Amino acid sequence: MAAHKHMPWPAPVVTAVSGVLGDTDQGLTRTEIGQLLAAVRVPEVEGGNKRERLAGALLAQQARQQASNCVIAFITAAMAPVRYARQPHTFSRRQDDLNEVLVHVGLRVNDEGKLAKGPAAATLSEAARHASSLRAELRRRCTHPEVLRYCTLEILAKNPFHASLEAVKSVADRLRTLTGEGLDGARLVDTVLMPGRGTARVAINANATGPELDEQKGLANLVKGLFSMYRNPAAHEPRLHRTVTDEELLELLTTLSMVHRRLDGAYVTP
């Protein structure tokens, strides 16, 4: 794409690209950044952390050349698929994160690691939608971190079937952690979430009035329903016979996020 001179990108876009590729935990190492800058003939700059040094180098070169070719070349070099032969999840993560930024200049990183034309966006919600990133939409919905902790690898692998299975497991695992119970499935829910003759062991309210008990029972039945819909079939049926679309996965993860938020404020009886 860098065969001719491209207009300079806005500084916030270059800075955001540098934030993705120079991220402290998920980004390139300092050594890798130095090697890639040398490969695309962009002089390094001093000072700051990885993100700041990368942004400074790219912005300075863009200003000198009055073109964004240096930024395009760096992204292309950084996203070369051969670099991720043993880390396909890392490629997917960076591709998704970059596309959330690049949509603001009407570009995207394709599966070959190259920049291609794509839809442009002016707002954050448009960016999340046009980037076609499940993770972007989950962030926009403020999905509970406990949900993402269990299924991020499956999402990065673009595997909604197994992501739904792992995400539902997050609720059962959390109930066991809260109570010390070793049960699973409906038995676990009946033991710790369903109010019996007294207050539920994991109570989302005082369990003192009819409406409060109905709310508690509603959550328990919802969790059992989610187990029945996703965990049990997914554990026993081949993927070929059970398709989970991205849209269905989004709805499931949003519901599970609500469940975890109710558990955040629950009263737990040991």
Short overview:
The protein is mainly alpha-helical and 270 residues long. The protein contains twelve helices and four strands, in the order αααααββαααααβααβ.
Describe the fold and architecture.
By secondary structure, this protein is mainly α. Helices cover 60% and strands 4% of the residues. The protein has 12 helices and 4 strands; from the N terminus they run αααααββαααααβααβ. The strands form 2 sheets. A two-stranded antiparallel ribbon has the order 1-2. Strands 3-4 form a two-stranded antiparallel sheet. Strand 1 (107-109) and strand 2 (115-117) form a beta hairpin. Helix 9 crosses helix 11 (210-236). It starts with 10 loop residues before the first helix and ends with a strand.
Which sequence of strands runs across the widest sheet?
1-2
Name the assembly state.
single chain
What coarse outline follows from CA principal-axis ratios?
Answer: elongated
Structural class: mainly alpha
Secondary-structure element string? HHHHHEEHHHHHEHHE
Q: How is the main sheet built?
A: 2 strands, antiparallel
The DSSP helix count reads: 12
- Binned strand content: under 5%
Radius of gyration from the CA trace? 23 Å
- Low-confidence runs (pLDDT<50, min 5 residues)? none
**Chain-averaged pLDDT:** 87
Q: What is the topological layout?
A:
Layout: H1 11-21, H2 30-39, H3 50-65, H4 69-78, H5 88-102, E1 107-109, E2 115-117, H6 124-130, H7 134-140, H8 145-156, H9 160-179, H10 185-192, E3 202-203, H11 210-236, H12 246-264, E4 267-268
Antiparallel strand pairs: 1-2, 3-4
Helix pairs in contact: 1-3, 1-5, 8-9, 9-10, 9-11, 9-12, 10-11
